[in-house]
Amino acid sequence: MTLAYPPDTETPMLTHEERFKPEPTKAITAGGGRWASADVARRIVGGADKGRFAVAPGFQMTALLVLHSLIAPALRAWQGWVVRRTGGSRR
Asked: Which residues pair with 55 in a beta bridge?
């Protein structure tokens, strides 16, 4: 079994979702870019074939997977700053 943490992926669902994303969410996810679905699938299947428990395509997602426990306080602070800056809500 492999757990996948995909980045924003070019799909009809993401296109639809972006029409309704709150401003803070748009700001937080803007830096990650968008991946082609074939590239995401290739990385996930490749990791699963190698027996990896978790696959996180791309540098940002891999860093988040590996360092999440250490950087959680900083991420929370950054998210709070983005929410205040964009006038949104954390909910």
From this structure: 4
DSSP per-residue letters across the chain: --EE----B-SHHHHHHHTT--HHHHHHHGGG--B-HHHHHHHHHHHHHTT-SEE--SHHHHHHHHHHHHHHHHHHHHHHHHHHHHT----
What is the C-alpha R_g of the chain?
15
Is the entire prediction scored with pTM above 0.85? no
> So where are the chain's domains?
3-86
Among all chains, which residue has been given the structure tokens 């590996």? 66
Query: Alpha-carbon distance 50 to 68, whole Å?
Result: 23
pLDDT per position as a tens digit, 23-40: 888 887 877 788 999 999
Dmax over CA atoms of the chain, in Å, equals: 44
